[in-house]
Specification:
Number of strands: 12
Shape: elongated
Helix content: 40-55%
Structural class: alpha/beta
Largest sheet: 5 strands, parallel
Mean pLDDT: 79
Distance between the termini: 33 Å
CATH superfamily of the domain at 281-437: Histidine kinase-like ATPase, C-terminal domain
């Protein structure tokens, strides 16, 4: 518990002989003569004395329960119901922040005995008897100063931990916000990609329905005619021509195949989108990088299909351990960035080339475009947060920064690039096969 500087320090003295308690009472409970400030009202201590280990334990626990903890305990080594070292160990179990001054005769305890019982702790000071009021005062002031410093450091550590957690949560929120913004930009295109196969699936299924209706009517006539006049072959042939049975038998398998392909494409798009949308909750796992890139290309297709062709050269790479959702965000950000660079360069014949390869214990992913390249004057800033060369409303400047943070900080890999003005840019992602812990 952090104690403000103006709060009085609470001191506990444990001694079966009242001599020490009387001296402390005179020094810290209102004696102007004993005070360094020479004024009783300036004293900033609350003193409590007790004569046994049981009383001391009850006092320490009572202080914890009431929120008025003791900062310092002066303990005589020889007590009627316990040894001082045993009491100190018990009190530290109740309050790990308590500082202690152990009072003992010079030959009574060795450091080895103390260390064996309590270990080496900077919260323990030894005061050898006999001692003067000056020695007692100075060691108490030093111990209280150490307690306050320790307390302040603990408070600062707690605040740093809280701030770190807040920053980590803010980074997660920023990542999710960037993801949602990217998905929002792609939503119209994804809807179009889903609508196109769905359209011909619907048309083909309607045609299949009409075909089977015709076949059903034809078969009904077959049954009637064959039942009555099995010799009317010419009439049957005429009815087959009217129903265009030959075309139905030829086209129906094609219609069914197209329908199945359309449904399969819808499933692939939806599954890829579903996997990407859950990336904010991803845990570490093993993935096939080539498959992850294929899914990302499917998601991002509307961002590049009108401006660039995509060429893939996937090598035989091993599975890698990573955070799949976050890594998908990296791929998406860089692919969309490449498409936008080609589009902004207004250069025909746009091309995005994606290659993967196993290099030693690493997997390399190269994503290159033949856009205008990155101007040399800004190359050292492209991974900076919020840096963007796009017009207002067209980019947040977070895409490449987030990709860099995910690869370099979260995965312990590296994200770099090479660019040539007028020729294009290639981003190189290098990832270890296994996360380093």
């Amino acid at each position: 518990m952090f104690v403000e500087a103006e709060d009085p320090s609470k001191i506990l003295a444990v001694d079966p002989n009242p001599a020490l308690r009387n001296r402390l009472d005179a020094m810290f409970n209102g004696s102007a003569q004993a005070s360094l400030q020479s004024a009783a009202e300036a004293l900033s201590y609350q003193f409590l004395g007790c004569s046994s280990a049981a009383e001391a334990t009850a006092a320490i626990r009572g202080g914890i329960e009431s929120g008025q903890v003791f900062q310092l305990a002066l303990i005589e080594n020889s007590l009627p119901d316990a040894q001082g070292l045993d009491l100190i160990r018990s009190l530290w179990q109740a309050d790990a922040d308590l500082h202690v001054v152990l009072c003992c005769a010079g030959q009574e305890l060795s450091w080895e005995q103390i260390a064996a019982k309590l270990g080496e702790s900077d919260q323990l000071l030894i005061l050898e008897k006999p001692f003067s009021d000056l020695e007692l005062r100075q060691i108490i002031l030093a111990a209280l100063g150490k307690w306050q410093s320790h307390n302040v450091m603990r408070y600062m550590e707690q605040q740093i931990e809280l701030r770190t957690q807040a920053i980590e949560q803010a980074n997660k929120n920023l990542l999710q916000a960037e993801k949602l913004a990217t998905v929002g930009q792609l939503a119209a295109g994804i809807a179009h990609e889903i609508n196109t196969p769905a359209q011909y699936v619907g048309d083909n299924l309607k045609a299949i329905g009409d075909f089977f209706a015709s076949v059903t009517r034809l078969l009904e006539q077959y049954r009637k005619l064959l039942a009555a006049h099995g010799e009317h072959r010419q009439l049957i042939d005429q009815l087959e021509q009217q129903a265009d049975l030959a075309f139905i038998l030829e086209d129906a398998p094609l219609a069914i195949a197209q329908s199945l392909e359309g449904i399969s494409q819808i499933v692939r798009i939806v599954q890829a989108m579903k996997g990407f949308s859950h990336s904010g909750k991803s845990n570490a796992g093993w993935i096939n990088v080539n498959l992850a890139l294929e899914n990302t290309l499917l998601i991002a297709r509307n961002s590049y299909k009108y401006v660039a062709e995509v060429e893939t050269d996937f090598g035989d790479v091993p599975a890698i351990e990573c955070f799949p959702g976050e890594l998908a965000q990296v791929f998406l950000n860089i692919i969309v960035n490449a498409a936008q660079a080609i589009e902004d360069g207004k250069k025909g014949g746009g091309k995005i080339v994606i290659r993967t390869a196993a290099v030693g214990d690493c997997v390399e992913i190269r994503i290159a475009d033949n856009g205008p390249g990155i101007p040399e004057s800004i190359r050292d800033r492209i991974f900076d947060p919020f840096f963007t060369t796009k017009d207002f409303g067209k980019g947040s400047g977070q895409g490449l920064h987030i990709a860099y943070r995910i690869v370099n900080q979260q995965h312990g890999g590296s994200l770099s690039f090479a660019s040539e003005t007028g020729q294009g840019t290639e981003f190189l992602i290098r990832l270890n096969r296994q996360l380093r812990r």
